Amino acid sequence: MKQLLRAIPSVNELVAETEIQQYLNFYNREMIVDIVREEQDKLRNAIINHDQDLTKFMVDYQDETKGIKEYLINKIYQMIQSRTEAKFKRVINCTGTVLHTNLGRAPLSSGIMEKLTETVSNYSNLEYDLDQGSRGSRYDHIEDLITTLTGAESAMVVNNNAAAVMLVLKALAQDKEVILSRGELVEIGGSFRIPEVMKQSGAHLVEVGTTNKTHLKDYEQAISEETGLIMKVHTSNYEIIGFTDSVSRSELVEMSHNNGITVVEDLGSGLFLDLTEYGLDNEPTIKEVLDTGVDLVTFSGDKLLGGPQTGIIAGRRELIQLLKQDQLTRALRVDKLSLKALEETLRLYLQPEQAREKIPVLNMLTISQDEIKTRAKLLYDKLSEFITKEYKLEIESNISRVGGGAMPTQELPTWVVTLTCSSTDLHKIWDQLRQQNPPIVTRLQKDKLVFDLRTVSIKEIDIVASKVTKVIIKGE
Ligand SMILES: *Cc1c(COP(=O)(O)O)cnc(C)c1O
């Protein structure tokens, strides 16, 4: 052991090696030296702890001293590669979940990228009024688009919907009471909980009704001098079914306005187009909600809307004005990349049929069964060419999900390719597929590996096929 430890080359000796020298030409020397030290330490510990892999490796070398050096240089090389490569990257989503929050929610339409690049890689009129030649507002660029699409008087955009909800509560109900039905005390993934957000904003929550039933009189009886807002929250990721009752928007609005109280609704996802003809739940559009008289609505830009991460607030002008003037707005403001991506996404909505085709989320939600089956067949055929006997491939019907906390009970019929195997552990294949470039993310359902073609484009099928083949045939 001592002999092995003594054979570990010094930092200077390692850094002088050509394989490592070349990196010093363009990377920070300190980073390289740190990596060299870390790898020396790891090797030292491996020797002391009689690491199995290391022993096996060493046996392959005649000359252990030389072996140690080569082993170490190889490890250092791999670590430099891994530390300098991009970690945040494209993946292929074979899960069938359209708005997969862990996989970046809404993929943006590739058509808008050119416009995005042009605007943000040059100077822009982000906060410049070109007519007056003076300071302008970033909120002005898309206000008209949002009001046109929703019928709202006014609108603004912030960092995300969580920020939108926080801003509305803080600016309109700080130190006041906000009345909310018990059935709507929502928690969204990533620890966004309405009661906590309420507390952070400085508003006081007044819960009314019960989990399954809330009546108009429950709201009415809770109104006091202290009431700042009446709030509704979309129960995005669950549904209460059975013996239930909730108050219709128009009834709630009428009663609230008679009492001089503002009604706000956190719609969560927010939908511009009616998708019922494609078999999707009758989720109200933003326009329909505003038409019932709700004073303000908030929703996400990257859920059913299919745009970038943003939070949109739309509704009455004087309320939006108050929000724009609030100090918190500066901290929650939308950045220029997201703003431009949102503008281009919203412009697509001006032609609804264009929007349905070109916005990937809408396209994937409304795609025909035939189209999905064609894709499944294509993947099946490509894989069949290579697959060996112990594997079994099948085309089956299955269910995709909307995801992203939208339409929780909506089942989208789909076609999938499934893979089963008598010998190899499918879990291992599932793991290895995620280590590919690009990574392939699939679902393990019972004893099958499932590739749902709803979320895989025609262009991606070749990539999926080649990666699956690589993993299965070569085991890498
Ligand atoms: C998703 C969601 C949010 C949070 O929106 P983000 O854009 O993710 O910040 C808030 N409220 C509801 C009801 C939601 O569904």
Automatic annotation (TrEMBL):
PTM-bearing positions, type N6-(pyridoxal phosphate)lysine: K303
Domain L-seryl-tRNA selenium transferase N-terminal, chain residue ranges per copy: 5-44
Subcellular location: Cytoplasm
Cofactor(s) required for function per UniProt: pyridoxal 5'-phosphate
Pathway it works in: Aminoacyl-tRNA biosynthesis; selenocysteinyl-tRNA(Sec) biosynthesis; selenocysteinyl-tRNA(Sec) from L-seryl-tRNA(Sec) (bacterial route): step 1/1
Cellular compartments per GO CC: cytoplasm
EC code(s) of this entry: 2.9.1.1
GO terms for biological process, alphabetical: conversion of seryl-tRNAsec to selenocys-tRNAsec; selenocysteine incorporation
Residue ranges that the Swiss-Prot or TrEMBL entry lists as coiled coil: none
A Pfam family per the record: Se-cys_synth_N
Catalysed reactions listed for this entry: L-seryl-tRNA(Sec) + selenophosphate + H(+) = L-selenocysteinyl-tRNA(Sec) + phosphate
InterPro entries on file: PyrdxlP-dep_Trfase, PyrdxlP-dep_Trfase_major, SelA-like, SelA_trans, SelA_trans_N_dom
Molecular function in Gene Ontology: L-seryl-tRNA(Sec) selenium transferase activity
Keywords tagged on the record: Cytoplasm, Protein biosynthesis, Pyridoxal phosphate, Selenium, Transferase
Superkingdom per UniProt: Bacteria
Keyword Membrane found: no
Similarity field: Belongs to the SelA family.
Cross-referenced PANTHER family: L-SERYL-TRNA(SEC) SELENIUM TRANSFERASE
Function: Converts seryl-tRNA(Sec) to selenocysteinyl-tRNA(Sec) required for selenoprotein biosynthesis.
The name this protein goes by in its record: L-seryl-tRNA(Sec) selenium transferase
